[in-house]
Amino acid sequence: MNAKEKQLEFIKTYLKPTLKAFGYKSSGQTWWKDKGEFYTLINLQNFSWNTKEKVNFCFNIGVVLKAIIGKDKKPTYYDLTTMVGDIAYLSEQRKKHSFRNHTGYVLKTEDNLNHFIEEFNIDFENYILPELEKLNSIQDCLDFYSKYEFWFDVLKKTIEMYKIS
Question: Exposed e or buried b for every residue in 21-44, given b needs 16+ CB within 10 A?
């Protein structure tokens, strides 16, 4: 199996079932969870320099406010009000390991897929998803994004503009 095939297998056997178990719906490589006035959204981004032998990808993670897109529209990556990369959720120790580089995750043909999934599982289920599970109100979102000045300001201004309580 080459790296691209391994990534597809990872998405099919680990990522989609895990996110579904956490209540996420999906369309393509985007997953979202309804949180009332907003959605939490996870988008897998591949890079243009990927080859069959080496795949680099990251996750764009953020909040989509329903007041902007409407309550019945499926949220997309382009609807994100805030967005930080997967690295923002990881501890300093988890920001570097055998399957991470400066762009995010890297999977090569010679890599053991089960080992990749084990490492990814630590990042995803111990760091990323628990933080997203804590976002249950607009105030929770403001509190989380307060450490990212730019996104905090965008979120706060958008909340004021759309008169979201």
Answer: ebebeeeebbbbbebebbbbbbbb
Q: Average pLDDT of 100-117?
A: 97
Q: Determine the Cα angle at 39 with ends 37 and 45, to 5°.
A: 160
Q: DSSP readout, 123-161?
A: HIIIIIHHHHHT--SHHHHHHHHTTSHHHHHHHHHHHHH
Token representation of residue 72: 């019945």
pLDDT tens per residue, range 56-96: 999 999 999 999 998 789 999 999 999 999 999 999 999 99
Token pair, residue 76, equals: 């997309």
Segments forming the whole domain that contains residue 115? 3-161
Do the beta carbons of residue 141 and residue 83 sit within 8 Å?
A: no
Q: What is d(CA 142, CA 65) in angstroms, rounded to the nearest whole number?
A: 12
CA distances from 70 to 6, 15, 74, 108 (A): 36, 27, 9, 40
What is the Cα–Cα distance from 134 to 141, expressed in whole angstroms? 9
Total tally of structural domains belonging to the chain: 1
